[in-house]
Specification:
Elements lengths: L7 E8 L1 H7 L3 E7 L4 H9 L12 E4 L2 E3 L10 E5 L6
Length: 88
Amino acid sequence: MSSIAASTLTVRVLLFGSYAEWLGFDTLDLSLESPATIDDALKRLRSLPGGDTLPERPLCALNLSQAGARTPLSTGDELALLPPLAGG
């Protein structure tokens, strides 16, 4: 009989603007059960104090490239959550 241990992965989360204000930090190392997606990271962030204010589908960048909620994560990835930007 074999036992399978749950493995984890760790990603660095970067928060900007109002997202950083709401959650109270601008960087966080987040551990998740593997396999994990951006959506899994967002669910974990929403469980933190202030995380319930995050929008349903925030703009995300994974390793400096825009990525969707179903994008898989790997240990060492950098996940950035970007609030809506305005300019003029």
